[in-house]
Design goal:
Number of strands: 15
Strand order of the largest sheet: 4-6-8-13-14-10-11
Structural class: mainly beta
Number of domains: 2
Number of helices: 0
Distance between the termini: 45 Å
CATH architecture of the largest domain: Sandwich
Radius of gyration: 17 Å
């Protein structure tokens, strides 16, 4: 096995992992427990048509004629992932990611307002962003994005 790869030998449910599973595998030759993030190691994608409080380890595709507000989860742990992508046939500004109290989203040295009113907005209806929780309940780092993100 190549360095950095994880080998999982058995799933508790006898098939694909589920959100509730904890798998045991090898990392650096040592048995390690891992939390599953969904079937076959993937998380779910959600088409949303109204304002939504996002759930950890999910992806969102807002589809509406008007802007949809996507609020960060209030409870998160290090390593939680969120993906958001606009759809071509959506509104001009299909989504806004809204921070909750004491939450922040940052990309390098650029960050949202920490007062609870911070948000990021895409400049294009097909802009996408992937966020990683880097501090439980409070901070998300932009891992990947296409298009421009406007921070407020």
């Amino acid at each position: 096995m190549l360095p950095g790869y994880i080998k999982i030998s058995q799933f508790p449910n006898g098939g694909s992992p589920t959100l509730a599973d904890i798998e045991t595998g090898l990392r650096g030759g040592v048995n390690t427990n891992f939390n599953a993030i969904g079937p076959s190691g993937l998380f779910g994608w959600n088409i949303v048509t109204s304002n939504t409080v996002m759930q950890n380890n999910n992806g969102y595709v807002p589809q509406s004629g008007s802007t949809i507000i996507l609020t960060l989860p209030l409870n998160s742990v290090f390593g939680d992932i969120l993906w958001i992508t606009g759809a071509y046939f959506s509104a001009t500004v299909p989504w806004v990611i809204q921070c909750g109290p004491a939450q922040v989203i940052y990309d390098g040295t650029v960050l949202t307002n920490i007062s609870g009113s911070g948000n990021i907005t895409p400049d294009n209806k097909t802009t996408s962003v992937q966020l990683l929780c880097t501090a439980a309940n409070t901070a998300y780092q932009v891992l990947n994005s296409n298009g421009n993100l406007l921070f407020a």
